[in-house]
Amino acid sequence: xxxxxxxxxxxxETAALQQVAGRLSWDQETVMPRGAAAQRxxxxxxxxxxxxxxxxxxxxADWLAAIDPAALxxxxxxxxxxxxxxxxxxxxxPARLAAEIARVTSLGQGIWAEAREADDPGAFLPTxxxxxxxxxxxxxxxxxxGGELYDALLDDYEPGATGxxxxxxxAALRPRLVALRAAILGSGRNVPVLAxxxxxxxxxxxxxxxxxxxxxxxxxxxxxxAVHPFSSGSGTDCRITTRVCETDPFSCIYSxxxxxxxxxxxxxxxRAFLLTPLGAGVSMGVHESQSRIAENQLGRSAAFTGWLFxxxxxxxxxxxxxDAGTFYAVVNRVTPGYIRTEADEVHYNLHILMRFDLERxxxxxxxxxxxxxxxxxxRFLADFGVAVDRPRHGFLQDVHWSVGLFGYFPTYTLGxxxxxxxxxxxxxxxxxxxxxxxxxxxxxxxxxxxxxxQRHGGLYQPAETxxxxxxxxxxxxPLLDYLEAKFGALYGL
Length: 493
Ligand code: ZN
Hints:
By secondary structure, the protein is mainly α. It folds into two domains: 3-146, no CATH class; 163-490, Neurolysin, domain 3 (Orthogonal Bundle), CATH 1.10.1370.30. Helices cover 63% and strands 2% of the residues. A three-stranded mixed beta sheet has the order 1-3-2. Strand 2 and strand 3 form a beta hairpin. The longest helix is centred in the N-terminal third of the chain and has 28 residues, at 3-30. The chain starts with a helix and ends with a helix. The structure holds zinc ion.
């Protein structure tokens, strides 16, 4: 066996163990008995220890040193790049610091959840300050010379992105989003609200139908219920979860389509990359682009909601909306709200832009945790025109910082930007797209995404993955054009 074969055999075994660890999390969120929590924490910590030891195994460095990249094909060189990157990042963080971060962030989520429930920032802020201190120390250990600390953390979720690059992209988004939002709210249009009951069992049957309509492969997938919907796994075991609210069918419908977008990406990666570093989505931003384009540009389109309206009437009877046009307006209602996860397409990115600026300032040391709540509330008032009424509607609403996820938020907007680029290219390539969507069939669009984006897995860098699919470097223009056209028409602007 050559050193490359040895390295790949080792990497395959690591990828298999990562899938096992992921399935433990899936089990915990779906079917695990409640009394198993403490034992499960120990099981997962043991898996983490094994995975950490493998990532820093000295044999990896020996194999990497012995391999001549010039003797490999493009996929082999990409495997090598990803393995080297992970190995070097893990080695730079001292074991003491890694253990401390794992310990503090595992407690952080529970402390945050209680503080949010009680609307008590004081109960969470000391923990947040400790997490921030450790994450800054980690960033300093990881940082390349010259870059800002934040870049080192961002690199975990979106390789190649930088704080400065994202700030420039977001600066281009912000004025047009703010102007669009103001025009919509000033239009005086009233959109009705749904006021009917939608039985849970029928919603779940519809969720399965929607997953099929978006090309979800049931041979390698399954659908279960979870409090916070997610997708899990890659290769030939890609599971999704959804939730059901009997007064709000959109929660189930659009959570399902969103998670199918994620799962379709994992199902769509070239099987030759199965259980290797290339065998999964390339970054959080590209992953989110696949879920967002399915959910928003396809699932919330006039064509698809036209079909969905008819299906809902068949399943649930008359639910008080006169026609498909009204239904389309209800699905896409724009309304300012405190909560990011409930935001419409126009407000969503404004939520992310403020989190990005705040967490970047926290990591840079320009903002202290003691001033975070005031900074959040000031910014929210400026961007949304509403004063935050309680901490759980403000800076206590998201779990991310409590588990140490600094640098994760911007990938949501990056995903929307990428989705905008892909949607423009997809429409140019598929002139019959609206006819297909109007028949409830999103599979041709998903097949286009599989061919252009998904099958490559981790072969190319994130921005290059999008550029290859669309023919040009990604930027915010197509997303803004799409939002202005769609909501301009809906609100008569
Ligand atoms: Zn997502």
